[in-house]
Write a sequence for this structure.
């Protein structure tokens, strides 16, 4: 008898997460110099991290023999959002927080709802908890909130929503989202994943944290991995009711965020200059890549994030050609979008390299 037979059947049924190919791995595979490779595969910030975060981390190196103290970051977040610290849960990346929510509310015999083409961590977290997964067909590649309401069953405890969604870049208007929240039964938790919130034009942005008092079943998640440029440190958080935060903290590992991440995130939160620069670079880059895709004849999904999904036909073949040219993007086969690739917005030079590689791949 194999050890696998002894495992939980729902763990055995999970397909592992496929990360963007690391630069060093492609360098080894293709025999390319690392400097020649452009990675636009994981929605990372092409400007790196906030200089303030870097300085804070250098200082925090002196505290590494101590167990982490998360007070300063929680306090900074509480001030930033005007919320009590009892509503904040920190995570080792926001993926950690998503997992905590699943562990609190999901189990075999319960179900969770998510949208077709939505972020891969929702099925991972739901299935790891043994819950049944209800995938609701997308509308124009985005969340169909009406259909998601209809999909709610007596045993449904959780609904996952990414706004904007990764990998499609689609966005549900806040008015629709609020009507949806009002219609969801009070005993069903709604996770609103706003990892890309900072890329929405400020004039179009609604502060959903102001909804938390009206909806005690709402969990908003945010991350320092995207516009704050701290993906490698793994730090994110949830904002929710004090009751849900308390439950999540019961299953959280006591020291799930490390000293360097806590220090960097606290400093990054207030580096408005860096955020503004990252936002502006993304806007310009979106236009640059959209113009290029249009010129080369590719269709795309309008994106509200720092990436664009575009349709190429044989995505595996084109991806291989791009890799040979030292350009890493993300194939979306795992998302049920076999003919699509997703490119992250880079610096102007990186975007240019991507478009040139795309053009020469077409000619191959
Ligand atoms: C990148 C991303 C996150 C962030 O994950 P971290 O664990 O914080 O790095 C969360 N949700 C979505 C939809 C994402 O694309």
């Amino acid at each position: 008898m194999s050890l696998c037979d002894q495992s939980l059947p729902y763990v055995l049924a999970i397909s592992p997460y496929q990360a963007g190919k690391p630069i060093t791995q492609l360098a080894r595979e293709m025999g390319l110099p690392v400097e020649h490779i452009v990675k636009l595969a994981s929605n990372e910030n092409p400007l790196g991290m906030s200089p303030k975060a870097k300085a804070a981390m250098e200082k925090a190196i002196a505290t590494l023999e101590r167990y982490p103290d998360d007070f300063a970051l929680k306090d900074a977040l509480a001030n930033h959002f005007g919320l009590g610290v009892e509503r904040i849960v920190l995570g080792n990346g926001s993926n950690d927080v998503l997992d905590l929510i699943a562990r609190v509310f999901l189990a075999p015999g319960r179900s969770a709802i998510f949208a077709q083409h939505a972020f891969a961590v929702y099925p991972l977290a739901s299935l790891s908890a043994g819950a049944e997964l209800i995938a609701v067909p997308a509308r124009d590649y985005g969340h169909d909130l009406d259909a998601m309401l209809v999909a709610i069953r007596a045993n449904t405890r959780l609904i996952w929503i990414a706004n904007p969604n990764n990998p499609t870049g689609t966005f549900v208007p806040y008015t629709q989202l609020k009507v949806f929240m009002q219609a969801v039964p009070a005993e069903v938790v709604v996770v609103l994943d706003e990892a890309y919130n900072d890329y929405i034009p400020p004039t179009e942005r609604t502060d959903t944290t102001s909804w938390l008092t009206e909806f005690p079943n709402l969990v908003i998640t945010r991350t320092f991995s995207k516009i704050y440029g701290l993906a490698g440190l793994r730090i994110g958080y949830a904002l929710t009711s004090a009751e849900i935060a308390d439950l999540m903290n019961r299953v959280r590992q006591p020291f799930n965020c490390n000293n360097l991440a806590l220090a960097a995130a606290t400093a990054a939160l207030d580096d408005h200059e860096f955020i503004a620069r990252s936002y502006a670079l993304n806007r310009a880059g979106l236009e640059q890549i959209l113009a290029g895709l249009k010129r080369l004849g590719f269709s795309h999904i309008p994106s509200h994030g720092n990436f664009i999904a575009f349709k190429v036909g044989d995505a595996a073949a084109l991806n291989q050609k791009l890799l040979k040219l030292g350009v890493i993007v993300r194939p979306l086969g795992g998302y049920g979008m076999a003919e699509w690739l997703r490119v992250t917005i880079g610096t102007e030079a990186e975007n240019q390299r991507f478009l040139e590689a795309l053009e020469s791949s077409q000619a191959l």
Observations:
- The domain at 51-268 is CATH 3.40.640.10 (Aspartate Aminotransferase; domain 2).
- The first strand starts at residue 38 and ends at 39.
- The radius of gyration is 21 Å.
